[in-house]
Design goal:
The protein is built from four helices and two strands, in the order H-E-E-H-H-H. The chain has a two-stranded antiparallel sheet with strand order 1-2. Strand 1 and strand 2 form a beta hairpin. It is elongated, with a radius of gyration of 29 Å. The termini are far apart.
Length: 128
């Protein structure tokens, strides 16, 4: 097929604008060895830091420290931290505590009271 027979149209760009054989379509693309956000974040979270814990200097990763601080906030009663910690635990670990033969389901009215209490706690929690 010669250039004269070539019909330009939808999905058929002019020959002079098409990529040339052996030439990259993105010549100024990502440089070899360039790191992405995921790589940088992983490296930063795996970096070790020294912290004082119960009077002793302990070395741990930043990720471990974040989890400890997050759990400590939840233990102190921060409703948002509790909720988020439960969500993350369920996503990562799954529901380990399946109802067994020794568990008793709450009556519907008791469950409704608990649900109402929890919704008020979340609603009344101060914004941080």
């Amino acid at each position: 097929m010669s250039d004269k027979d070539y019909e330009v149209g939808h999905g058929r760009p002019p020959k002079h604008t098409q990529f040339k054989k052996g030439q990259s379509g993105n010549p100024k693309g990502r440089k070899k060895g360039a790191r992405g956000l995921k790589t940088d974040l992983r490296a930063e979270l795996n970096e070790r830091v020294e912290v004082k814990e119960q009077g002793k200097v302990v070395r741990m990763t930043k990720q471990q420290l974040m989890v400890k601080q997050f759990a400590a906030k939840a233990i102190k009663g921060d409703v948002r931290a509790i909720s988020k910690l439960v969500d993350v635990a369920m996503d990562l670990l799954g529901p380990d505590d399946e109802p067994g033969k020794n568990t008793v389901a709450l009556p519907a009215d008791d469950q409704a009271i608990i649900n109402e209490f929890l919704s008020r706690q979340v609603k009344d929690a101060p914004d941080e």
